Amino acid sequence: MMKQRALILSIALWLPFLALAQQAKDSVSLQRKARAFVRKGNTLYQQQQYIDASVAYKKALGKNNNYQKASYNLGNALYQEKNYKEAIPQFELTTKTAKDPVVKAKAFHNLGNSFLVQKQYQEAVNAYKDALRKNPSDDETRYNLAIAQEALKKEQDKNKDKKDDKNKDKDKKDDQKKDPKKDKGDKKKKEPKKDKGDNEKKKDKQQQPQPNKMSKEQMKQLLESLQNEEKKTQKKMNEKKGQGKKVPQEKDW
Which residue of 45, 141, 145, 207 has the fewest CB atoms within a 10 Å radius of its CB? Predict the structure, then answer.
């Protein structure tokens, strides 16, 4: 009887250890499967099969949802698909979980690219600045930061102009409400009576050549020249903007 009790007690004591051992074994098995999916995803990525690569990385995360390399590589694949909205949370996750400052910098850089191509300029500026804090020597990040800052300034200036115009319109309407006769009086002053002689003089003036007025052909040439310059500038910026470092996948062999 005593031996049976001792045996039961011994088994009861060992059960937790056996369970932990099994969990560790299962964890190792899942990790191996996750790595296999990442390797498959990397191969597909190099073949520019980004959709299939995304599927492989997602399967890796299904085996291990804390697998940083899988989430980072998934972000890159989604970015290549131009699926920027879904790429953003993957890069954000990497910026929080990665321990290597270089990896963090790459994730912040790609995060900035994702914001930039969506015209979220303030968010892009913030991401590029964070990338430079982790890797101050990255010239491509610094270049993209300059582009984002310039775009942000233009957007802010445009919004300011719209706000100013809106305020002017509001002030004008308020003035008209206070003194509605004033506007009518102003209109009358601006429209004096014209006799036949005035009309003839105006007609003669219109028939005379106007100084500094470009011909249609000159205007056409100027517009074409400006358009060509704009295309060249835009092409150069597009080669850099949103591209930055097409960060290669972190291989996990």
Answer: 207
